[in-house]
Design a protein that fits this description.
The complex is a heterodimer.
Chain A: E1 3-15, H1 24-33, E2 40-52, E3 56-60, H2 67-74, E4 82-87, E5 91-94, H3 107-117, H4 122-136, H5 151-164, E6 169-173, H6 181-196, E7 200-204, H7 208-214, E8 217-222, E9 225-231, H8 232-260, E10 270-271, E11 276-284, E12 293-295, E13 300-308, E14 315-323, E15 328-333, E16 346-354, E17 362-372, E18 381-392, E19 440-442, E20 466-467, E21 471-476, E22 484-490, E23 499-505, E24 508-515, E25 521-526, E26 544-550, E27 571-577
Parallel strand pairs in A: 3-7, 3-8, 5-6, 6-7, 12-18
Antiparallel strand pairs in A: 1-2, 1-4, 8-9, 10-18, 11-13, 13-16, 14-15, 14-17, 17-18, 19-27, 20-27, 21-26, 22-25, 22-27, 23-24, 23-26
Helix pairs in contact in A: 3-4, 3-5, 4-5
Chain B: H1 2-10, H2 12-28, H3 36-55, H4 63-85, H5 92-97, H6 104-130, H7 142-166, H8 169-183, H9 196-205, H10 207-221, H11 227-251, H12 255-258
Helix pairs in contact in B: 2-6, 3-4, 3-6, 4-6, 4-7, 4-8, 4-10, 6-7, 7-10, 7-11, 9-10
Classes of the chains: A alpha+beta, B mainly alpha.
């Protein structure tokens, strides 16, 4: 794939402005005394990377890391101090919307002026004018001078122009951070559209979630150096890990400081009467090691080190979790849990374990506190959102990783009969918690609690057998090592033609079966591998839904065989995992 | 060099739109609007006429036409240079955010002032007609004179625009500089009124003296110009443009971080 953008050993040096003469006076003084020191700032050091055609690259990093400098170099607003930049295609930059807008000109005049600043000809602008105005939703205001526009209208117009110049390469710098929600959605939709059209894009942002969602590749810049480069998942993970580690170090120092020198000084996010002090807080992983980045479902242990300085009556410890924007997610305390702690003078440890952290990707803060009894308003010591950690989640979005599973879908029109409640439908998802599902089902032997829809009554023939309708399901609880699903089945006794069908596990096809006659046959299917993104989450403890679907069903009465009006699919005797 | 010029040609739409913007904006919020591009030079002419015929009488015939012939080209030069000085620094928000050939900015300022000048010439011709000054075929030189003056103006505009990016004093100094230049250019007096050796020196060092004289020669006097004199001025103008362009392109790549 040909590269659309290529940077080879690019460095960029800025000479800081206060160090150079800006007027003749300074120049003269500088020449006389030779005292001015040249202060240099290397915004980029030997940076090389490529963006392939149709790729979307995200650039992340703290402020001042050189992200915007890269964009400006690509657009040629700046020139590199050394190195080479090759850009193949027409570039449009969403660096600042409406650059060059003039308040005294009307919307229409500004559209044309802005278009020509971006390098478009009059004819091209004529062709796109209508589209731009429609996208900006400014049909009624297009002949009004811009000074009468609201800031939202102003931005919409700027974005509409920049996005409609049909660039081959689009550079986006944080513009999505502004504007109301519906406009942001529109912008994102347009970016998605560009992506599907195979345009090359470079996206600079602090919004890691957005970068992760949109970009295939990412670069993490820090002080002009590339710290990590590769798939956006990997880069963001590295970035978060580093961020937490650094902040962890900073907090530890802060602690010592607090404990030995500034006991009495109240910090903005720390207060309390001081009889009991929480002097250190550690976030630990399941292995007991300090950890600041977790995966959804990980074990997290919050360990509080406390010191009781004066004897107090009753200690209650509390822990709360907030999202980075302050949203309160969870809080718990030892009083509510009826856990008691020794309140003698001295030091101690309190630990809180979250068995499965159900949080999605994001940054979170922990608050801890200790107070007498239920008087949390009068704490001995309270640390508000002082300890950060991040979570690296699975594919799911949102705040909480709710435990869930998808039940296989089916088309509505073919299941008119199934829509009527089946008499054998005993199993409900809610009852999962209370009933232990078997790994092995022998039909007719107390199997009611694991059968889902689509089965007929058990028959005492040949030993015990159940008949399925066109589609029938049951639930099994495979043990951790199970890799196969096996089934003993045969044709309905009265079927005159061979029978065939498919077996699904959790809605996914695992295999086919063909039955020629009424002789029992054993079929084995490979179980799908458990979710690879969370390897430590084996299949253990998660039920599977096995669905049998046959191609044709038979109704014996219609075939003139008997009075039996059941819809017969396949006879099943046993199903098990091993 | 060739690439840069080709790129500039590619951006001609931008130049055009900037020129249009400039002209539109100049009179947009005034009551009389467009009338001002005629009214303004006529009012200035009236002021000079009152001062130099009533308060300080002189023997120049048709003084209003005499002054207008030189005042309009001077105004064109003055507004173009003062506008262009600020064209890079004043458009910092654009320079920092969008790439386009930077010479577009001073160029569009000069061209916008050229358009304004051409419109103002209507007032001049009206005055010529009112004072029954007979036009001669030499007036056909006018487009050539305007062209050469534009070349010269553009060259200086590029130099001063660049200088102002690095030393903001340029603009302040030039405000006084242009006033001095105005007095050193025969606008409200005849070059013959000067001490002869100064008159010669002025032709040598001040191309604006040549330009204002030209306008007077072909319009006010209606006589022919000396070709050698014309050629020398033309060469001066071309040198100014080439030097201006070289200086500008030499430094324009750092404008993005200096403005």
């Amino acid at each position: 794939m040909a590269a659309a953008i290529r940077l080879e050993n690019v460095s960029k040096r800025f000479i800081l402005h206060h160090a150079r003469p800006h007027s003749f006076q300074e120049l003269v003084i500088g020449a006389l005394w030779r005292s001015r020191s040249q202060e240099e700032l290397w915004a980029l050091n030997d940076v090389s990377f490529e963006v392939g055609r149709g790729e979307m690259l995200g650039i992340i990093g703290p402020n001042g890391s050189g992200k915007s400098t890269i964009l400006k170099l690509i657009t040629r607003i700046l020139e590199p101090t050394s190195g080479r930049i090759t850009v193949d295609g027409k570039v449009s930059a969403l660096i600042e919307l409406g650059a060059g807008f003039h308040p005294d000109l009307t919307g229409r005049e500004n559209v044309y002026l802005n278009g020509s600043i971006l390098g478009l000809s009059q004819e091209e602008m004529d062709a796109k004018f209508k589209e731009i105005v429609e996208f900006a939703e400014l049909e009624r205001f297009i002949n009004v001078p811009l000074k009468h526009y609201s800031s939202g209208m102003y931005m919409r117009l700027g974005f509409a122009i920049a996005i409609n110049v049909e660039p081959d390469i689009l550079l986006i710098d944080e513009v999505l951070a502004v504007g109301d929600e519906s406009f942001q959605k529109k912008c994102l939709a347009k970016i998605e559209e560009f992506k599907s059209q195979g345009k090359t894009m470079v996206f600079v942002s602090h919004a890691l979630e957005t970068v992760r969602k949109l970009c295939d590749q990412a670069i993490w810049l820090e002080e002009g150096d590339i710290k990590s480069m590769g798939s956006s998942d990997k880069v963001i993970y590295d970035y978060l890990d580093d961020l937490r580690r650094k902040e962890g170090v900073a907090l530890d120092e802060k602690h010592r400081h607090l404990r030995y020198e500034l006991e009495e000084q109240q910090l903005e996010n720390r207060w309390g009467s001081g009889e009991v002090k929480i002097y250190d807080v550690q976030l630990l992983g399941g292995d007991g090691e300090e950890q600041h980045v977790y995966q959804t479902g990980d074990i997290m242990i919050i360990r509080l080190y406390y010191e009781v300085k004066e004897p107090v009556a009753d200690l209650t410890f509390g822990v709360g979790i907030h999202r980075s924007d302050g949203l309160h997610i969870h809080a718990t305390n030892t009083l509510a849990q009826k856990v008691h702690y020794d309140a003698r003078v001295g030091e101690g440890i309190v630990e809180l374990e979250y068995g499965e952290l159900p949080l999605s990707t994001g940054t979170y803060a922990v608050s801890v506190g200790v107070w007498p009894g239920d008087k949390w308003q009068l704490p001995y010591d309270m640390h508000s959102q002082m300890y950060q950690f991040s979570v690296w989640g699975a594919e799911d979005e949102g705040l909480i990783a709710l435990p869930h599973r998808w039940l296989g879908g089916r088309p509505l029109d073919t299941s008119a009969e199934e829509a009527s409640p089946s008499p054998t439908l005993k199993f409900k998802v809610e009852s999962l918690k209370f009933e232990r599902l078997p790994t092995h089902v022998l039909m007719g032997e107390n199997d009611e609690h694991c059968l889902d829809g689509g089965w007929h009554e058990v028959e005492d023939w040949p030993p015990k057998v159940r008949w399925t309708k066109k589609r029938a399901s049951l639930l099994l609880m495979p043990d951790g090592s199970a890799s196969r699903l096996s089934m003993i089945a045969w044709c309905p006794q009265s079927a005159l033609t061979p029978q065939s069908g498919r077996v699904y596990v959790d809605g996914r096809v695992v295999g086919k079966f063909d039955l020629a006659d009424t002789d029992p046959r054993t079929f084995a299917f490979r179980l799908p591998r458990p979710n690879v993104t969370c390897p430590e989450h084996s299949r253990r403890g998660k039920p599977i839904k096995v669905t049998i679907e046959v191609e044709r069903t038979l109704i014996p009465a219609e075939a003139g065989l008997s009075e039996d009006r059941r819809e017969l699919g396949v006879a099943v005797q046993e199903i098990w995992t091993d | 060099m060739k690439e840069r010029i080709l790129e500039l040609v590619k951006y001609r739409e931008l130049v055009r739109n900037l020129v249009i913007r400039d002209i539109k904006l100049r009179y947009r919020n005034s009551v009389l609007g467009f009338v001002w591009c005629l009214g303004n030079p006529l009012l200035m002419m009236a002021v000079f006429t009152v001062v130099f015929t009533v308060l300080m009488p002189n023997d120049i015939p048709n003084y209003p036409v005499f002054i207008l012939c030189a005042l309009l080209p001077w105004n064109y030069f003055n507004t173009a240079i003062m506008g262009a000085i600020d064209s890079i620094v004043g458009n910092a928000h654009l320079i920092k955010k969008v790439y386009f050939p930077r010479e577009v900015l001073p160029l569009s300022i000069v061209l916008a002032n050229l358009v304004n000048f051409l419109l103002a010439l209507i007032a001049l011709f009206a005055m010529l007609f009112a004072f029954r000054v007979q036009l001669t075929p030499w007036a056909l030189y006018l487009p050539l004179i305007i062209f050469i003056q534009t070349i010269f103006t553009l060259g200086l505009a590029l130099i001063f625009a660049t200088l102002n990016v690095f030393y903001r004093d340029t603009k302040i100094i030039m405000e006084v500089g242009m006033l001095a230049w105005f007095f050193l250019t025969p606008v409200f007096y005849r070059i013959e009124d000067l001490v002869p050796q100064y008159a010669r020196l002025m032709y040598w060092v001040n191309p604006m003296a040549s330009f204002t004289s030209w306008y007077r020669i072909v319009l006010y006097h209606g006589i022919s110009m000396e070709p050698g004199f014309m050629f020398r001025t033309f060469v001066t103008a071309v040198i100014a443009l080439v030097v201006g362009y070289l200086v500008f392109t030499r430094y324009s790549h750092v404008f993005g971080e200096e403005v």
